[in-house]
Specification:
By secondary structure, this protein is an alpha+beta fold. 22% of the residues lie in helices and 23% in strands. The chain is globular and about 35 Å long. It binds FE3-S4 cluster.
Amino acid sequence: MTERLRVRVDPDKCQGHARCKALAPELFELDEYGNAHEAGDGTVPPGLEDKAWLAKSNCPEIAIDVIEE
Ligand code: F3S
């Protein structure tokens, strides 16, 4: 069985590069300053796991955590 993933953005590290939103628009929202936070409670819907890892590896500030639950 596939593990469930959850994404989390560290607001202290995020600098608004928005690559996460470009790569995984289903998983991230941007606020009015362009900083990201996880959509909903951060749970990654089935089928979007690759996008979660892609967003994590493409954030220049290393602000994204992917948690395996
Ligand atoms: Fe922030 Fe990284 Fe996304 S800096 S906007 S979490 S790509």
